[in-house]
Specification:
This protein is of the alpha+beta class and 160 residues long. It is 23% helix and 45% strand. It is built from three helices and eleven strands, in the order E-H-H-E-E-E-E-H-E-E-E-E-E-E.
Length: 160
């Protein structure tokens, strides 16, 4: 865990990092209810996948119900060998708000398909509510090559 120079309270920043580590444990266990306990009810997310709506697909997930459904769909795409790790988790904290960023590696086998090993960029904004750090905004992305119009899913951290 890297604490940024602008972090106001190192102990609070370490609480944020601990909350992210607990989320990773819940993800690895595919414990949906526990995972959802780390999100604010008004979670807003720019995820890798598009959000399904009654009118088609949307750019963002808006609210706990559709975000929960995203995770149900996501876990349904994979066998039980999903592993996620976060590299270079950096925490910025001021008062009751914190931002974390890192490079996240997802490894697992698609149901009936190939093994996936991809690094993504992740940023979360958290808010302290009743002494708990909850994610209120989630953003996951991969770099994009405009010349080829392709997502660069084979990139990873330098040196990996």
């Amino acid at each position: 865990v890297i604490l940024s120079d602008v972090t106001e309270d190192p102990a609070a920043a370490l609480e944020v990092a601990a909350a992210r580590a607990a989320w990773v444990e819940a993800f690895t266990a595919q414990d949906l209810d526990r995972m959802m306990s780390f999100y604010a009810e008004d979670i807003y997310s720019y995820d890798l996948m598009a959000a399904p709506t009654g009118d088609g697909l949307a750019m963002a997930f808006d609210g706990e119900a559709i975000w929960r459904q995203n995770w149900i769909s996501f876990f349904g795409m994979f066998d039980d060998d999903l592993v996620i790790t976060i590299d270079n988790l950096t925490v910025y904290q001021q008062g009751d708000l914190a931002t974390v960023r890192g490079l996240t590696r997802l490894e697992g086998t698609l149901v009936g398909g190939p093994f996936v090993d991809v690094w993504v960029r992740e940023t979360n904004v958290l808010r302290r509510v009743n002494d708990r750090w909850l994610v209120l905004h989630d953003h996951v992305s991969v770099p994009f090559d405009f010349a080829t119009e392709q997502a660069l899913t084979s990139l990873g951290p330098i040196g990996r």
